[in-house]
Amino acid sequence: MRHYDVVVVGAGPAGSAAARHCAEQGLSTCLIEEHGTIGYPVQCAGLLSEAAFRECRVSRRSILHEVSGARIITAQGSELSFDAGRTRAFVADRAILDREMAMHAADAGADVRLKTAYSGRKGQAVRTRGVHGRGEIPFRVLIAADGPRSPVARSLGMPRPPIFLAGLQAEIIRHMDGSHVELYPDASPEFFGWVIPIGKGRARIGLAGTQDIPERFRMFCRGICDGGVIHLVSGTVPLGVMEKTYGHATLFVGDAAGFPKPTSGGGVYTGVRSAAHAAAVAGEACLRNDTTDAVLAGYEQRWKADFGRELEFGLRVYRLRQQLSPVDIDRLVRLLNDPGIIDDIRQFGDMDRPAAVIRHLLKNPKLFPVLGILLKGGVRQIIK
Length: 384
Ligand SMILES: Cc1cc2nc3c(=O)[nH]c(=O)nc-3n(C[C@H](O)[C@H](O)[C@H](O)COP(=O)(O)OP(=O)(O)OC[C@H]3O[C@@H](n4cnc5c(N)ncnc54)[C@H](O)[C@@H]3O)c2cc1C
Known about the structure:
Elements (H helix, E strand, L loop, with lengths): L3 E6 L3 H12 L4 E4 L14 E3 H7 L6 E5 L1 E5 L5 E5 L5 E4 L1 H14 L3 E3 L2 E7 L2 E6 L2 E12 L6 H6 L6 E11 L6 E5 L7 E8 L2 E8 L3 H12 L4 E11 L6 E2 L2 E3 L15 H21 L4 H29 L4 H11 L2 H10 L6 H8 L5 H8 L3 H5 L1
Parallel strand pairs: 1-2, 1-11, 2-8, 5-13, 11-18
Antiparallel strand pairs: 3-7, 4-7, 5-6, 9-10, 10-11, 12-15, 12-16, 13-14, 14-15, 17-18
Helix pairs in contact: 1-3, 1-6, 2-6, 6-7, 9-10
Bound molecules: flavin-adenine dinucleotide.
The site of flavin-adenine dinucleotide has 38 residues, from helix 1, strand 3, strand 9, strand 12 and strand 16.
């Protein structure tokens, strides 16, 4: 039985990135994935900022389309449109992206075992079940990249993220302005709906929220689709980071830790960045031959210094959003529809780190009426 320095559970973007980083440091690494094919089932809109795509360290093969701006459209008919004038994000084929990331992990020296599911822990070994029956893989550090439901976290009794959104998405025939993403805040009042062009007259339509998802989705599609709906996918988006992202010689990365951004639900950027931090700390733990919490705590310090404040801020915006009615949202959109403000959004907007542009906008005197709307939702907490 081979002993590994690191076993990574789950070959999504976070798991493959972690395995690649570990193997590149010379750690003996095993990446296990329960499915027989990496990248399936796809549970993602595939919208990645340029920075998120860069973090994945892959070729451009998975890019289906390029996006330079967005339109926010309310049920009352107000619109806010902005365009950066250059590509700011890519729409990726997640199946191709995930497969390429896992290939890079294998190329770096990680053993990739498909159809091998984590089924529990036995001390410093993971129990697996899969094509070769039941097995055990001993490790020094375990990286849990096993997605929103994280069987690893559950088996260890770790507290889970506080919020789970359900998402539903489909591909549709739709001829739209090819470079703009459309956002519909009223399609799902706790969150929003989206229509993302993927080129050749096709788009991805989806929404996420906490209730009535199939019914909302049906209504949303009815108002938008030119033709039929194909390739329906569902998924879960965890929001709010789990209480402690390390413990039991284990580091939790990506969706398993609750790292999607609460403002958008996007989790690839933070997932892949958390993987790099986890790999660095796993390397340190192996080098010092110490996998106690005293060393693993360094992981939490790293990701918090990187994007912790951004996630905290995002969660406050998410909670505020729960207080706003469709009328409030419509008013906000109309107030934001000002050339100077749109210019600020264009200049300071960052999909992965939206806190800066929101803070900047709230200082603009033209937006003081917005404060009235936000105050009732607890804005003081947002701009503190
Ligand atoms: C509808 C929807 C749309 C989204 N759109 C976007 C978007 O446009 N942009 C964006 O950035 N994010 C988006 N997200 C979020 C994004 O999909 C996730 O944040 C991202 O996939 C997280 O990567 P991960 O590697 O942490 O987890 P996952 O991609 O979930 O990978 C986890 C892996 O672990 C495997 N696994 C699970 N259990 C076991 C086990 N017991 N044993 C072995 N393997 C196991 C799974 O099979 C899977 O391969 C969307 C999510 C949803 C639901």
